[in-house]
Amino acid sequence: MDLATLLGIIIGMALLIMAIIMEGDISLFWSFSSILIVFGGTFASIMINFTMRQVLGVIPLLKVAFSKRTNDSIGMIETLVEFAETSRREGLLALEEKALAVDEPFLQKGVQLVVDGTDADLVRNILEIELIFLEERHKLGQKIFQQMGALSPAYGMIGTLIGLIAMLGALEDPDQIGMGMAVALITTLYGSVASNLIFLPIAGKLGIKSDEEILLKQVMIEGILSIQAGENPRIVEEKLKSFLAPAERDAKTRATRGEASSERVTANA
């Protein structure tokens, strides 16, 4: 579970509720009809705008947004350097079994292409095409939540109009005027909260996770092609480290030096 996503929503809702309680009765801010207008209308529009298969794909996307699974670029670089060392010692065919031990279908596919003797340019083209369509699928998921973020305030305004019409239609009844005004304002509130606290932030989180996964697969492509070219493992490592942020590179360098120092101490002992 990604605590940042969950805590963000919980803290946001808690602060809103606290602010409401400080100002008055929280029951005044509850309206089931407003929920129906905002969330029912938003999902209805999403179903019209997208296919049923795409709409049902929202549920797995929520799992991605709330999952803690991170893309370990440093770990993948270490794996690819290890593959490069194995390739230089035992040949490319030895990589097939090692790739199967790694739970990464994209890496397995790339290694299999190399083991089968596929031309380097063709390997790059195949993997990059798969990467392009992966990115397009990710963008579709982001687009759904962005669309929900755009629609929910609009339905909040629709609810406001409904409330105002109900209020104007019952000017002779003071009780109906109050109820109509409440629906008008609460629906706008629900639409704004749903958009800015749930839908748009989830779209942003999906975008970040997509960028991380795309970067990881770009690391795999360069690593696989470097291994196929027979480059020195140290050169492979330096090339792949260029994909990392400076802080991550420094952390990896310190870790490598620490391991080397430990090995020297062990050898001297």
Profile the largest sheet: none
Give unreliable regions as ranges.
260-269
Rg: 27 Å
Termini gap: 43 Å
Characteristics:
single chain; 269 residues; mainly alpha; 83% helix; disordered C terminus
Q: Can you put this structure into words, describing what you see?
A:
- This protein is an all-alpha fold and 269 residues long.
- It has one domain.
- 83% of the residues lie in helices and 0% in strands.
- Helix 1 packs antiparallel against helix 9 (174-228) and helix 5 (73-90) packs parallel to helix 9 (174-228).
- The protein is elongated and about 90 Å long.
How is the topology of this model organized?
Blueprint: H1 3-23, H2 32-49, H3 52-56, H4 58-66, H5 73-90, H6 95-100, H7 105-115, H8 120-168, H9 174-228, H10 233-241, H11 246-268
Helix pairs in contact: 1-9, 2-8, 2-9, 4-9, 5-9, 5-10, 7-9, 8-9, 9-10
Summarize the structure in short.
The chain is an all-alpha fold.
